[in-house]
Amino acid sequence: xxxxxxxxxxxxxxxxxxxxxxxxxxxxxxxxxxxxxxxxxxxxxxxxxxxxxxxxxxxxxxxxxxxxxxxxxxxxxxxxxxxxxxxxxxxxxxxxxxxxxxxxxxxxxxxxxxxxxxxxxxxxxxxxxxxxxxxxxxxxxxxxxxxxxxxxxxxxxxxxxxxxxxxxxxxxxxxxxxxxxxxxxxxxxxxxxxxxxxxxxxxxxxxxxxxxxxxxxxxxxxxxxxxxxxxxxxxxxxxxxxxxxxxxxxxxxxxxxxxxxxxxxxxxxxxxxxxxxxxxxxxxxxxxxxxxxxxxxxxxxxxxxxxxxxxxxxxxxxxxxxxxxxxxxxxxxxxxxxxxx
Amino acid sequence: xxxxxxxxxxxxxxxxxxxxxxxxxxxxxxxxxxxxxxxxxxxxxxxxxxxxxxxxxxxxxxxxxxxxxxxxxxxxxxxxxxxxxxxxxxxxxxxxxxxxxxxxxxxxxxxxxxxxxxxxxxxxxxxxxxxxxxxxxxxxxxxxxxxxxxxxxxxxxxxxxxxxxxxxxxxxxxxxxxxxxxxxxxxxxxxxxxxxxxxxxxxxxxxxxxxxxxxxxxxxxxxxxxxxxxxxxxxxxxxxxxxxxxxxxxxx
Lengths: 341, 252
Fold this sequence. Notes:
- The complex is a heterodimer of chains A (341) and B (252).
- In chain A, 69% of the residues lie in helices and 1% in strands.
- Chain A has helices at residues 26-32, 38-69, 71-77, 97-128, 131-146, 149-176, 191-216, 219-227, 232-261, 264-269, 287-294, 301-333; strands spanning 87-88, 93-94.
- Chain A has a two-stranded antiparallel ribbon with strand order 1-2.
- In chain A, strand 1 (87-88) and strand 2 form a beta hairpin.
- In chain A, helix 4 (97-128) runs antiparallel to helix 9 (232-261) and helix 5 (131-146) crosses helix 7 (191-216).
- Chain B has a domain at 5-96 and 166-247: 3-Layer(aba) Sandwich (Rossmann fold), CATH 3.40.50.300.
- Helices cover 37% and strands 25% of the residues of chain B.
- Chain B has helices at 43-50, 79-85, 101-111, 117-130, 134-137, 151-164, 181-194, 207-213, 231-236, 241-247, and strands at residues 5-14, 17-27, 32-36, 60-68, 71-72, 86-89, 169-173, 199-203, 216-221, 224-230.
- In chain B, strand 4 and strand 5 form a beta hairpin.
- In chain B, helix 4 (117-130) packs across helix 6.
- Chain B is globular, with a radius of gyration of 18 Å.
- Chain B starts with a strand and ends in a 5-residue tail after the last helix.
- Chain A binds chain B through residues 1-5, 131, 218, 220-221, 223-231, 234, 238-239, 242-243, 245, 333, 335-337, 340-341, and chain B through 51, 53, 56, 58, 80-85, 87-88, 90, 92, 94-100, 107-108, 111-112, 143-145, 147-148, 158, 161-162, 165, 207-208, 211, 235-236, 247-249.
């Protein structure tokens, strides 16, 4: 190449000669005196191992206690406990199905409402929101998570339920009554009310985690989509949501976990009647609600055992739902790497 | 076939930073044009102004006019339309990691609603062949993710993705700077092949690369276009003292 100079041989420039009589520097003698540090490394490893094991032990301990203390009902009803609708403390006949149904359906309603809303909030905050609004808005969504659930319950009783009863439910009954999901009588309280309040409660966790994973998607992915001639929505769909989808499903699973276990607010609006009715406007009961409501009244051992077995059912349902969600994620994303580089 | 690019009085800013100052040049069709200069001289900003990627940064601002063929980039069309006609390859390979190799290449067409599978298959094969990647990936087009390839293969995949929408102009922003010498050589061969069909603008830190692939070379220095001429003239007999200092390694 003409015009480009030949680089001089770097070896020809020798470094300054070392003074061999100099004592080792303070830094070097300090570092040499530290030994091989193998002991502290090993201690750290074991400490972390114990931390990890503790989670496993706590879960195992809970399961063990739940099974141990519900021996009476387990031996009396066996597996049929989980598939029976009876709940009669007087004659000693117990079944968990209406509670499992109430918990699952109210959580599902909550997800249907909360997920699109939460993803929308996250998309707006990360991709569209002007900078000066971003801080206050994300603070407000996270503030929703800090409100105690009994306050949500009170708000639902005095504000949400009247609104549902006067405006939303009549409209749903008229527009979607044919599906059978929105049939009267219209109490205001019921499974739908519980689902709506749960949706508001799980919104912040889903949206803030979604926001987190969306921000983690590298800017180069957005540029790649834009450079292909994408509109802003196409860029968000292909460059951001698609890359963040595993994280978003993780956020939804965490939200679902919260919805399944939520007690106080649900107890206040779900109606507390152990029935299985197709209509979402009807009264229901959830697993955590029945434990909270009836634990103090459980007068005999069989009743107490039934309530504890409801707790076991909640434990098992939560595990099954989480496992299913993970299988779903695995099935959808097979072949794709777990995260964006 | 590619089209020429006419740039008149182009000025660009990042916030208060005047990164491009009164750029005027004509980039001829169906040739490779290299832009060289030290880091921060504005050459990347310049190519990003050609397909209006510059303005995706909220603090960025542009003035002046750019014509690609007979299309007035800043007045006739939306950024989305421009970017459909002007392909871009970035410094770091950025394939879509959640898509297969096939879907990566097809993404530009699918994005614009193209659904004809037979034509898609053809386009994907042709683009990958153009990008000299076909032989290496043809057996697991739909099995492997775009991110499972090596860095050099990923960059060629990105070139195939840009070629799939049949752009008139291909902008390359330091396409080989993150790659090893073997991959770099492949990319350079590719540019050599492609320039008969596309107008290529390549930003590079590597002066030998500019000398090898480009007919014309522009030298940028602190936001100004110091010199723009045939590559031969720039590297053998530069008209400006600063160009000479830069290409002989006396600064930058």
